[in-house]
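Hi V.,

You were right to ask for the full record rather than a summary. Here it is.
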Amino acid sequence: MTDRSTFCLKVSQGIKSRITCTWSDLVSLYARQPESCLSLQSWDTRLIKLRHLARKVAPWDIICRVPVYPKVALTKMPDIIDQFLANYSRQQDYFQVLATRAAGLLSHRLKRQGVQVIVSSRAKDIDRLRDKLNKRRSKYKTEQDIYDDLLDLAGVRIALYFPGDIERVKNTIEELFDVLNTIEHPKPRKDDANKKEGSSYEPEFKGYKATHIIARIKAETLSEADKRYSADKVEIQIASIVMHAWAEVEHDIIYKQISGAPSVEEQMIIDEINGLVLAAELALKRLQRALEDRTSSRERHFDNHYELAAYLMRKFPDASSKLGRVDSLFDVCRKAGFDTAGSIDELVTDIDMPNETATVAERLLDKLFERNTDPGLIAFYKESRAFHDQATMQALSLDKDTQHGIFLFEFLKRWNTLEELLVKLTLDSISRRLDLTKLQKAGLFSDEDIKKLLNIRYHRNRLVHSDIELTPQEYRELIKHIAELIDKLHVQNS
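Predicted structure:
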């Protein structure tokens, strides 16, 4: 009598509503009012009333189980979250590159300014993303709603050695990025992150302490080939190393709740650890001050450019974002014998900072070159800059796997476009086999074009059905040939 398979109801006679409900809802309705189930129109009316109930019953899937009646067309309904995830899976490499670019820019700008950090990046994991979207399902009506809601498809994490450097990091972000929003944690909220619904425990210590910045890379900081990466958002999380480490553990215990909700005793332990982490941050701030005091000794040589940067920050507290290339400044100062606090003090005597254009490092170098006129010192400075810049470029380059993924995606996208055009012209709709003679007889492709097409298809099959990898140059050559063939087909059809 009835079909208990999972379906979406699409009524054929002009009824366009796609209704969501469960089998039990329909059985219950039929038992109460069987006469209302005798016509398609009454079915449609009753099912619309069940829409909201059904979404509460099964928010994780779009399910409709109905008796099979005449004149009813049964089709599967596409799920908006599944569609989004399918599209994201094809774009994940793009967001990974975006995150890598953003992390590389920040890592090396901060490093050369003497800020000690660990910078990491990632594209959002699909499994975590699916869990997140399913929890927010009721918010979304279109894929664009999901894109607008998600701020962390590309993410960068900046772990500070010393929490006191956070303002310097913020200033650097503002130099390299267009900042869209800044969120400070912990933020005021009714339900504390550590207190779950129904829990009687009130935590003593604040939880996660960090700054999250939503931003886009400034187009002028990117090469012409990378300008497209300035279009999408990046979430940049800034916190101390100890806070980031504890946040990972806390996330699994509190938010993911793999083993169920934590007990009051477990919440108390977590609260204690939160207190210890906050105490550790205070200790790091004190340690930073103690190190700065030690490096301020007039006769002590700076061990690295981080110590020099810390000293300069004390001398120029209002120029945190304008220290400049402290890495090369340190190299030159050590070469010239000006690598102590006392000798640096001699150089800064006449410098009034912040200056509108020049950085602290540039002003100090000018003073140093005035005192030491050896042209070899300027040549050494240029070599130092080139060395550090080369290290930056290497770090910004993509790893082999990411490169392969990007080129493969671009190649297959172009091939699909070419294939769709060929389907319209030459493919047998039954056998789906390419008829090369039709291409030649129609004068669409020359013999040379046919060779290119066969070569492209050969590589496509190998890439899809085996584990081979092509070099970037091989990918570029194939993509170029596809573009040439597509242009020819467009010209023929115009």
